[in-house]
């Protein structure tokens, strides 16, 4: 079990990082709003610039609030006994909470069963080169890529160290008329 102090330090670090991001975002928004306000003072399109500045300010405030809520939720997840749960059951933006996607009617269930039964086995996927290792091996693809790269490197090394055609002719491995012309 993790030490509560470590969890608290992790939560504090996560909150500090998010707070720093929020401050940087807000500072950037203020700088942009200031620049837009300066343009408004020197421009005929003052109404448009002012509107843009207001929109930018509200976006910055919304983003800062969202980031702060996410930081609080992450801190609570790290140390639920130390950090209280976020109020209002806040969830991350963009998450679809509409419910279960399982088929409910008989046609949907039959279609799902048919697709489930016709799926390929792990051995078939391995034979086709889709699955690189055992189904639970999350690093199998990276391992296969590494082995391929190592094999390529070894071949390149062997090709670079191969004997010259003149040496092969001297050893009797290559006939003189088969040797490529010297460059």
UniProtKB/TrEMBL annotation:
Claim: Repeat is one of the keywords in the record: yes
Superkingdom, taxonomy of origin: Eukaryota
Biased segments, Basic and acidic residues type: 121-130, 140-170
Alphabetized Gene3D superfamilies for the sequence: 6.10.150.10
RPEL repeat ranges per the UniProt record: 153-178
Protein name listed in UniProt: Uncharacterized protein
Metal-binding recorded as keyword: no
Pfam families: RPEL
Region (Disordered): 86-105, 121-183
UniProt keyword terms in alphabetical order: Repeat
Organism: Kwoniella bestiolae CBS 10118
């Amino acid at each position: 079990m993790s030490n509560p102090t470590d969890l608290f330090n992790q939560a504090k670090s996560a909150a500090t990082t998010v707070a720093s991001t929020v401050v940087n975002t807000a500072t950037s928004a203020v700088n942009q709003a200031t620049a837009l306000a300066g343009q408004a003072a020197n421009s005929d399109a003052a109404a448009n610039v002012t509107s843009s500045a207001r929109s930018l300010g509200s976006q910055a405030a919304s983003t800062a609030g969202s980031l702060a809520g996410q930081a609080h939720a992450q801190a609570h997840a790290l140390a639920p006994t130390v950090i209280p749960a976020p109020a209002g059951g806040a969830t991350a933006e963009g998450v679809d909470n509409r419910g279960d996607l399982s088929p409910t009617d008989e046609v949907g269930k039959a279609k799902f069963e048919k697709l489930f039964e016709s799926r390929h086995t792990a051995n078939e996927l391995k034979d086709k080169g889709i699955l690189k290792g055992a189904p639970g091996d999350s690093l199998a693809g990276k391992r296969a890529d590494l082995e391929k790269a190592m094999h390529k490197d070894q071949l390149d090394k062997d090709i670079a160290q191969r004997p010259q055609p003149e040496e092969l002719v001297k050893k009797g491995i290559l006939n003189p008329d088969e040797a490529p012309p010297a460059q």
